[in-house]
Design a protein that fits this description.
mainly alpha; Arc Repressor Mutant, subunit A
Length: about 190
């Protein structure tokens, strides 16, 4: 099976080969875009991501076998244009939860209030910390993948994720636990 790097290298001279990269990674990019900007914008973001990737295919770092972090980096940059939509989405979560009291159980109301606190914390969080957190959580990238996507060192990713986690813990009223996890366990075990 060809690596992403092989596909992109071939697509430089034979553009039709780029479709293989789309087939391989479009579902993951679309899911990530849908979670960040909503399903209405996800299709446009997916198209834009692969259009940008296609335009920049000759500049790809062929030493990287997987193009997924590169594609996540592109879609994250495109999402910055859609921040207003994202902010509206977070605000919509903050709907008046008192209507739930007669319709749903106490647990549902408690969950809604927790969601409001988290969404408010996410809104206030610096964009760079939010991007790192969402790439890690929704993009299912390890620390190195997030670093590649955002074009920052792994240590910067650790710092951003630590700040994001502290912000969310504070929003939930929990004491900040010491940062222990330094990447996805499955990714760490696959390294030499």
């Amino acid at each position: 099976m060809s690596t992403d790097s092989d596909i992109i290298r071939g697509a430089v001279e034979r553009p039709a080969e780029f479709a293989q990269l789309y087939d391989r990674h479009a579902p993951a990019i679309q899911r990530f875009a849908a979670r960040r900007a909503g399903s209405d914008a996800a299709e446009d973001l997916l198209s834009e991501t692969f259009a940008v990737a296609f335009e920049r295919r000759a500049a790809y770092d062929f030493a990287r076998e997987s193009a997924l972090p590169w594609l996540y980096g592109i879609v994250t940059t495109l999402l910055k244009r859609h921040r207003r939509q994202e902010a509206q989405q977070w605000r919509s979560v903050q709907a008046d939860p008192t209507s739930l009291v007669t319709e749903q159980s106490h647990d549902a109301l408690e969950a809604e209030l927790t969601m409001r606190r988290l969404s408010s914390a996410m809104q206030r969080m610096p964009a760079r910390d939010r991007d790192a957190l969402l790439l890690y959580a929704w993009g299912d990238l390890d620390y190195e993948g997030v670093a590649l996507s955002l074009d920052v060192p792994v240590g910067t990713v650790r710092s951003r994720l630590n700040r994001a986690r502290r912000t969310l813990r504070a929003a939930l009223g929990r004491a900040a636990a010491q940062e222990v996890d330094h990447g996805r366990a499955d990714a760490a075990s696959s390294r030499p």
